[in-house]
Amino acid sequence: MISIMLQWLDIFDAAPVRKVAKGGPVFRQGDRVLSMYLVRSGTVALERPMTDGIALTLHIANADMALAEASLFADTYHCDAVARTDAEIASLPRATFLAEIRDYPDAALSLIETHAKEVQAQRTRIEILRLRRVAERLDAWLDLYGEPAKGEWINVANQIGVSAPALYRELAKRRD
Fold first, then answer.
1. Are residues 97 and 141 part of one domain?
2. Is residue 145 in a domain?
3. Does pLDDT of 50 surpass 90?
4. DSSP 3-state helix, strand, coil percentages of the chain (rounded to 5)?
5. Has residue 5 got a pLDDT over 80?
6. Is the domain of 74 the same as that of 35?
7. End-of-domain residue from the set 104, 119, 145
């Protein structure tokens, strides 16, 4: 029985989960959109292959984050979804997910709230990426989020758009 105060994550409670190994695809650009996805564990990046052979990271989804929800209203995916770590992905048919959202306004509102927060975070990321120096980007990120947990610096490098070696060089300068 579905609760009356359904949150959008609750829609996935009985959804099947599949494991995707690090580097494996959840879907590829051009695939038909048939499902809505929720990252249960791990990290999945939405990447758009560019003409120069480099993949542009559009979004990084972690546990309890939707994956490519904007594609719910498209025929095909406009990017690849690639596991950055081993991941577990829950999926529901698109029609099932949309029917649940229509039937449970609280779920729809919680989805809108989640997306509003993600838009704010993306706007902040754009502001950080506009800064020229690694030091400026790192300072801006640290001002917003504080020091990351042990082992998470690589994720900071991804979020501020610098290579891991560049970030580690900056961190080494700060320790000196």
1. no
2. yes
3. no
4. 45, 25, 30
5. no
6. yes
7. 104
Comparing CA positions, the residue from 163, 127, 149 lying closest to residue 62 is: 149
112 contact partners, CB below 8 Å, separation of at least 6: none
Residue numbers of the domain that contains 76: 8-104
- Share the mean pLDDT of the chain: 90
CA atoms within 13 A on the CB side of 13: 9
Half-sphere exposure of 19 (CA within 13 A, CB side): 2
Whether residue 2 is predicted with pLDDT greater than 80 in this model: the reply is: no
**What residues form DSSP beta bridges with 89?**
18, 39
Q: Select from 165, 161, 112, 107 the least CA-distant residue to 138.
A: 161
Using an 8 Å Cβ cutoff, are 40 and 67 in contact?
A: no
Token pair belonging to 126: 């754009």
pTM: 0.75
CA distances from 8 to 22, 134, 157 (A): 26, 37, 30
pLDDT-based confidence at residue 99 (cuts at 50, 70, 90): very high
